[in-house]
Amino acid sequence: MQLTGNEFIEALKAENIEHKTWTAEDQATIALDPLFDFIAQKVTQGELAGGEILVSGDEPIHLSLETSLINLPLRYVNQISKIVVDDPETEVNLYMFVEHPHVTRSGMRIELAASVQTYLDDPDSVMAKVAAFYDQELATINNYEEPVTDETEDDKGAS
Question: Of the four, 62, 95, 122, 158, which is 20 to 30 A from 21 by CA?
Fold first, then answer.
C-alpha cells in the first residue's frame, strides 16, 4: 500500500480514515483481537484506518494502532500536512501508540510496527510485535515511580 503525501493529506482532511475505539475496564480485560481484526480488514481493503483501546482508570491509557506515512497520530492533521506535502509515493506503515503520563515526558510513545505490506505478508509476527510493545509500555506505567526532586533530596540530608 503506497500513497503520495498529497493523497494522504487529502484522505486526512476529507476524514476518509475510519477510526474505532474499544473500552477495557482495566488492564486485565484488554482484548487486542477486535483491534487487530479491524486493522486487518481495513488494510486488506487498501483503506487507511486507526483503532484505539481505551483502558479505564484514574489516568486512562490509550493503546492505538494507525496506518500513516509518518509517526504522528492521525489527529495531528496540520502537522502531518506540513511534513508530507508534495512527498513522493511512499509505503504506508502501521504505527503503535501508547498515551499515558507515565510512558514518557510527552505522555506518548510511538513506534513503527511494520509497513502495511509486511503486515499483509506476515500478520502474526506483526501482531506479536504490537502485543509485546503494549505489554512493555503497560509494565512501564505500572512500575512508574515519581522522580525524586532536588528539594526532596536536600530535605532528606537535613534530617
Answer: 122
Q: What is the grid cell recorded at 93? A: 506503515
- Cα–Cα distance between 75 and 131 in angstroms, integer? 23
35-79, pLDDT tens digit by residue?
A: 999 999 999 999 999 999 999 888 899 999 999 999 999 999 999
Check: CB of residue 86 under 8 Å from CB of residue 6.
yes
What pTM was computed for the model? 0.85
Asked if 50 and 66 count as a contact pair (C-beta separation under 8 A), the reply is: yes
Cβ atoms of residues 112 and 137 within 8 Å: no
First to last CA, the chain: 63
Q: Which residues of 93-114 are buried (b: 16+ CB within 10 A; e: fewer)?
A: bbbbbbbbebbeeeebbbeebb
